[in-house]
Amino acid sequence: MNLTITGYSTALFSTWFFVDDLALLLDCGDGAVAGLLQKSRKVRMIAVSHADRDHLNGLPQFLQINARERGLPVVLYPRDCGSFPALEAFLKEFDRREEHGVGRNRWMPVIPGLSHPLGKANARILPVASRHIDTEPGIVKSLGYLVVSEHNRLRPEFAGLSEAEIVTARHTRGDAAVIETVSETLLAYSADTPIEPADRWQRPKILIHESTFLHVADAVSRAQEMRHSALDQVLPMAADLPLEALILSHFSTRYGAGEIRRAIREGCHRIRPSFPVFAVLPGEIRRDILSSRPVWEP
Ligand SMILES: [Zn+2]
After folding, report:
1. Which of 12, 79, 158, 255 could lock 109 by a disulfide, CB 3.0 to 4.6 Å apart?
2. How far is the CA of 96 from the centre of ligand 1 (A)?
3. Ligand 1 center to residue 182 CA distance, Å?
């Protein structure tokens, strides 16, 4: 599946990514609906990573225009964060035109490790814990999201058989002996996160990862460094994954576009990733990112 992803992501200001094929919006920063226009009607699920303004400030406008019958779009948010029920209550009070369904969309608290069906491509969305917001143990106030697709296939030992032989095998040995369910991570979205080991992302085909800083040393404090990632950490981590593409995002506006592209190319020359690397630069909406020109190609 070739995903059509459009997004905007600038540290401090706004972040959102629309995955057309999955009717999914990842975060809903300022300008999401203005950037997507009619396409925003397609969104069935909005997965919000945490309650920083730059990741949810687009919700009032997005829901005003797009809340509709059957509780759509569903807004997913980290269960332990009280800001979301507060925002839900406020918006429902603010938007009281019931006959249009405004304010009727469903808000769904989620926890890491428990997935929810997306209603598209046999895919489920799986929240993963993020250390972006530091809390007591067992409490999670910030998340990343994985999109995992499940499908059935013949177990390898039955691969060469004819259709009739497979039917017989299923009959005599039972389905489970012949068919296996494989899950595949189509997409991983880091949202805001300090760098994590590669296995956090479960071998995704596409990884959208934040890269607030170009160099770890650019973080002005230890606290900043513990909340965000730097390009010189993300590239070596991502190189360990069997990616089809890496999308870098959430750059700080302290860097110019040329400086970011140069740093990515230099980093990739050293590390030689086996996949193309795309970048959503500060202030730009990048449409159909994976069809656009990568900053680096193997
Ligand atoms: Zn952010």
Report:
1. 79
2. 30
3. 33
